[in-house]
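Appendix B, Record 12. Input sequence as logged:
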Amino acid sequence: MIPKDLFRKVRRIQITTSRLVTDVFAGQYHSVFKGRGMEFDEVREYQIGDDVRTIDWNVTARTGKAHVKKFVEERELTVMLLVDVSRSCRFASVNALKSRLAAEIAAVLAFSAIRNNDKVGVIIFTDKIEKFIPPQKGVQNVLRVIREVLYFEPENKQTDVSRALEYLSKVTTRKTVSFLISDFFVSSTDDESVERLRKALAITNKRHDLVAITLDDPIECRLPECGLLELEDGETGQKVVVDTSDTGVREQYEKNAQDRLQGRKRLFQSVGVDFIETSTDASYSDAMVKFFIKRRQRRF
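Logged structural output:
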């Protein structure tokens, strides 16, 4: 039996995100992801109105008449949501926690998927696979996904994105549209770990249509000037006291944050992974709409 307060919160997310799907994302998901898996069907003579980009120049040259390639769109997609529930995602300095942000984003994507009769599955992870829900259709499955993402109590605290990507390849036998939702605060920043993540991203992106969705918070990029402040690493528990009244301290903190964000961006770009940057102090729907528009323009 779901507690009443939990049910109300899940229901609130359902209402909010359903409205977004209807009013904002109607057609966006379909136009961007539907048809990304296309199978060759046949070659036929060119007809008025056909896209000239589909002309098969080899057959045209051989027959002396313009011919086009005809493709058949995949009827059904499988959408996988890979959601980071490590300790660093249970944080925010403004508005809702990053975990709440992740739940709402997952809900928008899941409702968009079932609206198009697609299956939705989820992998919830920390530095281990905490829970796997196989792809299914239906509103009840989406509500379960929201509930698990929002209130799942993980056993571990740290993050291993590579392990989640490797697990995805094990549990899926066909190409999926996969959304990797994380703040990408990895437990280790050594070169070996970064290279392992790069390899996992590259392999996954070849097998699947992978989109990374980053979760950020403004205080992770800039410290307020408020005197002595104790900072704690949510994943390792390490604590440090900093003097935020010191301009040099704030500037170094901001530089380190920018280096991390730029490094993350370069990592995605190096393996051709599309990404959406979201933050607890901004509208995730605006960021997602911009992504959909940009990708649709690039596609066509």
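The radius of gyration is 22 Å.
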